[in-house]
Amino acid sequence: MTPPLGIEHLSRTYRTVFPDGATTQSSYSSQDQLSKQLDPDNVTTLYQCNAKGELEYIVLDLDRGSMIAWNGTDRITKTVSKRYLRTVCD
Q1: Minimal CA–CA distance to 33: which of 46, 18, 16?
Q2: What angle (nearest 5°) sits at the alpha carbon of residue 47, between those of residues 43 and 51?
Q3: Residues with Cβ < 8 Å from 37, sequence gap 6 or more?
Q4: Is the pLDDT of residue 3 over 70?
Q5: Rounded-to-integer distance, Cα 83 and Cα 87, Å
Q6: CA–CA separation, 23 vs 57, rounded Å?
Q7: pTM higher than 0.85
């Protein structure tokens, strides 16, 4: 059975296996943005982008809920970037 158009591209997960047998697992959204990463110690890091597609939050998923717990135990880091325009006049 063929899935409906677009369903197969909602997310992708890649696994990397190291020579010692340790693995990492990275999941990407349908917009090709890293959304979740599982390291060899089974610690999950979640990533959330803003409407412009820029990385906005990096979250250490301490409660292992695979979702950002805004009022929970997850450690949330907000990424702030500022861009300045410099005008040079002759």
Answers
A1: 46
A2: 170
A3: 24, 25, 26, 27, 44, 45, 47
A4: no
A5: 13
A6: 24
A7: no
